[in-house]
């Protein structure tokens, strides 16, 4: 398109991906890791917050938590699925726990009914790391549509790739706007509007 960043094709990809996955909103990022960072910011995760995460995943699932001065609390895996053991989530919750990063690893969806039941009981936010699980379903519903927001990766070794890139998704307008502002360097206008250079 001749645009170096966020051109018409990027905006079209956001719209198409959101519709395909069943989300109201999507934001194209430069990587799945960036989408995970965006999810933490959009959920208001900050210094000292505890965030539960599986003990086995790609490093970004945990380092994105550390980069926001929050503390990853590791939950062991279920060896039948190699995903987070949903039966061990509740025991890992502390008074400072604010969210769960649920990783759908190797294309296999986590039991989201169990995750969401625990999250609702303890008023926790749920971030789905679906970087390796485009199109995966749990009980007929696509991953990335259960939690408060989700991250996908289009790295060259993922099941849907563009060489590099990622996607943040959510169904919540406030979460979307918080994420969109992060994408735009903290500016008060969205990338598709004229820039006002106020952050």
Can you count the helices? 6
Q: Note the run of SSEs as H and E.
A: HEHEHEHEHEEEEEH
Specify the helix fraction band: 25-40%
State the shape.
Answer: globular
Query: How large is the share of residues in beta strands?
Result: 15-25%
Number of strands: 9
**Could you give the order of strands across the largest sheet?**
1-9-8-5-4-2-3
Amino-to-carboxy terminus distance: 28 Å
Q: By helix and strand content, what is the structural category?
A: alpha/beta
Cα Rg: 16 Å
Mean pLDDT level: 92
**Would you identify the regions where 5 or more consecutive residues have pLDDT less than 50?**
none
Q: Main β-sheet: number of strands, strand sense, barrel status?
A: 7 strands, mixed
3D structure, described in words:
There is one protein chain. The chain has a 7-stranded mixed sheet with strand order 1-9-8-5-4-2-3, with helices on both faces. It has 199 residues and is an alpha/beta fold. Strand 4, helix 5 and strand 5 (125-129) form a beta-alpha-beta unit. Helix 2 (32-42) packs across helix 3 (60-66) and helix 2 packs across helix 6. The mean pLDDT is 92. It has helices spanning 8-21, 32-42, 60-66, 89-92, 112-122, 173-183, and strands spanning 25-29, 50-54, 71-75, 97-103, 125-129, 137-138, 141-142, 149-153, 166-170. The protein is 29% helix and 21% strand. The chain has 6 helices and 9 strands.
